[in-house]
Amino acid sequence: MNPSQGSSVPSEHETVGAYALGILDDAEATAFEAHLAGCEWCAQQLDELAGMEPMLAALADLPGSGSTPAIGESLSARPSPRLVEKLVDEVSERRAQKRRRSFYMIAAAAALIIAGPLAAVAVSGGSDDGGQVTATPAQSTFRTMSEKKSATDPSTHVSATVGMTQKDWGTQAVLELKNVKGPLKCSLVLVAKNGQRVTMSSWSVPNWGYGVPDARTERAKQPLYIGGAAAFQPHEIDHFEVVTFEGKKLVQVDA
C-alpha cells in the first residue's frame, strides 16, 4: 500500500515527525536516517514538515493537544489535519517519556546526595601509612545520637556501637566499628523481630583496618563511622549484625 493513499501509515514511517522535530535519540535518529535513504514517501513528508517545529512544539504543550479537530483546522496548509494531530500526540508522548527519565535521574541523584554524607568514612591525607584524620558527617551525627547500643565479639574481638534515631519513615543509624582489619567487604544488617533482614549499608575495610588500638598509624587507630537507614521503627528491631560478604558474622549488637 502507498502510504500517501491508504488510511494507515506503516510503523517504519511513524517517526518522521519526531525526526523533523529533533526529539529522537541518537540510535533512533540513525535508524530512521537509514530508512529515509530508501523511502521517497518519508522524504516527501520531511519536506512538508520543514519549518513546522516551533508550531508543533507549542501545540504539544497545550492541554488536551491531539484530542480535538480544531488543531487540524487551525493548520489548513499541508500536511493534513489528521497527520498534524498524530504528530502532536507523538511529540507529547516523547516529551512525557523524557520528563519521566529526567525525574528518575534527579531522584537517584537526590538519593546519593542525601545518603552520601552518612556513608562517609574517616578522611585522611590519602596514604595508608599516615595522614591527618578529620571528622566526617557520619561521626558528627553519631555524636548527637542519644540512643546507642554496643557489643564486642569474644571470638573476633571486633567492637561495634550502633546509634539510632527514630524517624517517621523508620530508623536512621550510624555504626561505629573498631578493631577490624582487612582486606574485607562488610555490611551492616538489621534483623527485625519478625525475622526479616535488611542491609543498611556496606563498605570495604583496607588492609590496615579501622579502630585498631595498637596500630602504627593514627589513621588505622580511628574507628569507622558509616550511616544507614531502614523502614523499621526502633521498637521493631531485634539486633544488628556486622557481617562479611562471605557471610561471617564479626559482631552482633542487640537493640
UniProtKB/TrEMBL annotation:
Pfam families: zf-HC2
Family matches, as InterPro entries: Anti_sigma_zinc_sf, Znf_put
Coiled-coil residues: none
Domain Putative zinc-finger, chain residue ranges per copy: 16-43
Keywords linked to the UniProt accession: Membrane, Transcription, Transcription regulation, Transmembrane, Transmembrane helix
TM spans (from-to): 103-123
Polar residues bias (residue ranges): 133-144
Region span, Disordered: 126-157
The name this protein goes by in its record: Zf-HC2 domain-containing protein
